[in-house]
TrEMBL record:
<keyword id="KW-0560">Oxidoreductase</keyword>
<feature type="domain" description="Pyrroline-5-carboxylate reductase catalytic N-terminal">
    <location>
        <begin position="19"/>
        <end position="110"/>
    </location>
</feature>
<protein>
    <submittedName>
        <fullName>NADPH-dependent F420 reductase</fullName>
    </submittedName>
</protein>
<dbReference type="InterPro" id="IPR010185">
    <property type="entry name" value="NpdG"/>
</dbReference>
<dbReference type="InterPro" id="IPR028939">
    <property type="entry name" value="P5C_Rdtase_cat_N"/>
</dbReference>
<dbReference type="Pfam" id="PF03807">
    <property type="entry name" value="F420_oxidored"/>
</dbReference>
<dbReference type="InterPro" id="IPR036291">
    <property type="entry name" value="NAD(P)-bd_dom_sf"/>
</dbReference>
<dbReference type="InterPro" id="IPR051267">
    <property type="entry name" value="STEAP_metalloreductase"/>
</dbReference>
């Protein structure tokens, strides 16, 4: 058994849990929803428009349904946030009541672009995940799923992603749960990568991956070696 697998238990911690994806009609949200549904999990994708969410869900299979962001957050046991950075604060803050007591997985990458290309802007709280935790005092925030290509997630011809998911958080039970969730995507491992204060480096690395993809015309992801 590898070091990455040591946290796994015989009992399936995800059994019976509903996965919610706030902003789930975007490419990242739809891609994650599809992969989770393919693994047998029940998924709810949220949107400001229930009709839009239901239309997106209909394309992803019977294990996925659409709802408003509020209904998604209230219904799900584990909630992923995949909204654009520009709307991150307002959307998370608006759902504080529905997200209380839940594990919230922040997948958002603060990004900006200028004539030199992508870069990570300064975030007063340190990272999107730390901003979410500040706004969600009654939830447990974990940062993860920043480096998976939405194009690859949505590609029917890609059966296995061959990627690691860096999982960052302060609550070990919550990070273990999210590592398990990452492992439900074929070809992926969830790798514990430190406490929530380290989320900024993980989020910022996405700017480097975008630069790599542009230069090499690729959809690069990450692998962590020697574990």
């Amino acid at each position: 058994m590898s070091a990455v697998d040591e946290h796994h238990q015989v009992v399936d911690r995800l059994a019976g849990k509903i996965i919610g994806i706030i902003g789930g009609t975007g490419p990242q949200g739809r891609g994650l929803a599809r992969r989770f549904a393919d693994s047998g999990l029940q998924v709810v994708i949220g949107s400001r428009s229930a009709d839009r969410a239901e239309a997106a869900a209909a394309e992803l299979g019977s294990s996925v349904r659409g709802a408003t962001n509020e209904d998604c957050a209230e219904t799900a046991d584990i909630v992923l946030v995949t909204v654009p950075w520009e709307g991150h604060r307002s959307q998370v803050e608006a759902l504080a009541k529905e997200l209380a007591g839940k594990v919230v997985v922040d997948c958002v990458n603060p990004l900006a672009f200028d004539k030199m290309g992508p870069f990570a802007p300064s975030v007063p709280e340190g990272s999107a995940a730390e901003q979410a935790q500040m706004l969600l005092a009654d939830a447990t925030v974990v940062a993860a799923f920043h480096h998976l290509s939405a194009v690859v997630l949505l590609d029917d011809e890609v059966a296995s992603l061959d990627a690691d998911v860096m999982v960052v958080g302060d609550d070990r039970e919550a990070t273990n749960l999210v590592q398990d969730l990452a492992g439900r995507i074929a070809g992926c491992r969830g790798v514990y990568a430190g406490r929530l204060r380290n989320a900024g480096q993980v989020e910022a690395l996405t700017a480097n991956l975008i630069a790599i993809n542009k230069r090499y015309k690729a959809h690069a992801s990450l692998r962590v070696t020697d574990i």
